[in-house]
Structures are given as C-alpha cells and as structure tokens.
Write a structure and sequence with these properties.
Blueprint (H helix, E strand, L loop, with lengths): L9 E6 L7 H14 L4 E6 L1 H4 L6 H18 L6 E5 L5 H11 L4 H5 L2 H7 L8 H15 L5 E3 L5 H18 L7 E3 L34 H10 L16 H13 L4 H7 L5 H24 L3 H30 L3
Parallel strand pairs: 1-2, 2-3, 4-5
Helix pairs in contact: 3-12, 3-13, 4-7, 4-13, 7-8, 9-12, 10-12
C-alpha cells in the first residue's frame, strides 16, 4: 500500500512597519510564528502598503521596514525555513486587491469593520479610502498564497473572516480558485494590554510610550516602565481578568517571557506584595530584552535587505501563479 505524503499547511501573516514593535506584538504574534516554522510552510511579510493608510515619514518608513525584518530574524524566524518579504515588492498584492474590490468585497462588509471605526474616530469622512479599504488588501495578501492558517490577534479576526467571505463568493462564481483561510488566535497572551490602562491594548502607535515596552527599549527604561505599571486594588497576587485585569495582564507577561505557568506564579507569590512581584517581573523583562537585543544588534541592515530580496523571489513565484489563475477566471488573462 502506497504511503500518503502529507504536505505542510501554509501560514501567512505580517506586521506593519510603523511605530515601535513591543512585547505585546512579540507575545501575541511573533513568538507564535517562530514555533510554527517546524510544522507549517510559513510566509511572513513586512506589510508596508498597510502602513501608508496613514501618512508616514519616508525615511522613518524605510528604517522601520529593515527594523522589522531584523526583529523577525532576532526572534528566531529562519529565512531558510520561512519566506520573509516586503509586501510592496510584489505588485500582485495590489492587483489582486483591486480584483477583489470588484469581485467579492461589498460596501456592507467594510461598513462593519470595527478597526476602521476605531482608527478614524469622528473623522470618518476625512479618512483615506485606503484606511477604509485595507481589509480587502489584507484579504489579497492572504489569498495570494493559498493560505490555510492566519495567526492573528483578536483585533484582526474580523478581517480574516472577511477574507473567507470574499474567497467563498469568488469561488462560487468561478470555481475553486482560492483556499478558504482560518484564523488562529493564541489563547494565552493573544491580547497584551497597556501597562497604564488595562482596558486598552498595548499598542506600538500609542502616543504615550509608557503604556508599552518596545522590543528595542533601553533596558533601564523598560525596568522603570514595569515598576510604574498600574495594578488593581487589594494586595493578593491573583489571576482574575474580570476583577484584576491589570495584575492578570502582568502575570501573563511574566509567564510567557519567563517561561512559567500562571498557576505556579500565583502560588509562588502567595503572601507577597505587588512590589516584590513587579521587581521580579522587571528582572524577567530585562533578561528577555537583553537577550533579544543582543541578537538584533548582530544583524546588519545589509543582512536584512538580502533576506528581503531572497524572500521576494520565492513569494513572487507563488503570487504570480495565483494571480494568473484569477486573471484567467475573470477573463482578463
């Protein structure tokens, strides 16, 4: 009997080169990606076209593109195992986004997108069309590569659902062109919250950088941020997201960066106060950042650029094949 050869499933994900990546980005996304490399065929992009939905400083954008590539590498993403590339280097992304705008995406879909409402606030009428439409570009990013699994944070799950809906509509009309992707969200640490306001997600674009710890923060600055982090009323170290959200957030950071189990941490700190807990957490964060930054600083901009160029060639071959299928299906190829 012939043995069936199982092929690895394909994963696609990416991060915008805007703002400073923080430990929330690492815990919720990048650390997941590193662990997925052995089990899946992974494609990771620096999604720079998504970054320009709001105005960017050109020099800072160029710097951030290389910075994020180096962060991917320092975190342990291996360019021999995974494809790492710059989104804008492959025109198929924007071409497919336009096709999907015409075949599959609907105004009603985009009107439901909560991220647009959050980012545009009361200024929806003056927001860019790109900010409104970027979930369709995200769908194109995903669908170009026969993606089966999309590891995302909770705030992006809605966009993966849109990609699924668009793919199904297109397939119903033109046959099985697109693979239907599935979102995967990390259960623990999927959403790391602000250090000063546990009701807000830790954000790389936060105007108050005391709310987050950047991966490239000065070590002693990071220590001080932990010591200033808000806690909840009472003195007991407990994990209770409803009644002690700030402390629970700190416990999650401690557990993941320190490779510990939350129940064990709670037991170890029984009878101890918040001061002792935060001091030890600061030590854990400092150790993590020191090791991470040591790896980061050994990677040159030239090294990062070489990785992006090699990744472009590999990603381009996959994207071109899928775009050809789409063009032929709708009658323009």
């Amino acid at each position: 009997m012939e043995k069936k050869i199982e092929t690895k499933k394909i994963i696609f994900s990416g991060i915008q080169p805007s703002g400073n990546l923080n430990i929330g980005n690492y815990i919720g996304a990048i650390s997941q990606w590193v662990n997925m490399q052995e089990k899946y065929n992974c494609i990771f992009s620096v999604v720079d076209y998504h970054a320009i939905t709001v105005k960017q400083n050109p020099e800072e954008l160029r710097r951030h593109i290389l910075e994020i590539t180096k962060i991917y590498l320092a975190a342990g993403i291996d360019p021999e195992k995974s494809i790492i590339f710059q989104q804008s280097a492959i025109p198929a992304h924007t071409e497919l986004a336009w096709v999907l705008n015409c075949y599959g995406a609907r105004i009603a879909d985009l009107n439901k997108m909560t991220q647009f409402k959050d980012k545009s606030g009361k200024n929806q009428e003056s927001a860019s069309v790109g900010l409104y439409d970027y979930p369709v570009l995200m769908a194109a990013d995903i669908l170009l590569y026969n993606t089966e699994i999309v590891p995302v944070g909770e705030d992006q799950k809605q966009h993966v659902e849109l990609a699924r809906d668009i793919a199904k509509r297109f397939n119903n009309e033109y046959g099985d062109i697109f693979v239907i992707p599935q979102a995967v969200i990390r259960k623990d640490g999927a959403r790391i919250m602000s250090l000063l306001d546990a009701s807000k997600k830790m954000s790389k674009s936060d105007s108050n950088q005391n709310n987050c710890i950047a991966l490239l923060d000065d070590i002693e600055v990071a220590r001080k941020k932990i010591m200033r982090a808000v806690t909840d009323s009472g003195t007991d170290i407990e994990y209770d997201m409803e009644n002690k959200p700030a402390l629970s957030n700190l416990l999650t950071i401690y557990a993941i960066l320190g490779n510990r189990e939350i129940p064990r941490l709670v037991k170890d700190y029984r009878g101890k106060g918040y001061g002792d807990f935060k001091k030890d957490l600061a030590d854990v964060v400092v150790k993590f950042l020191t090791n991470f930054q040591d790896k980061y600083n050994k990677i040159s901009d030239a090294d990062a650029q070489k990785v992006l160029e090699a990744g472009k060639k590999r990603a381009e071959a996959i994207a071109a094949k899928k775009l050809t299928e789409v063009r032929q299906a709708i009658g323009i190829g």
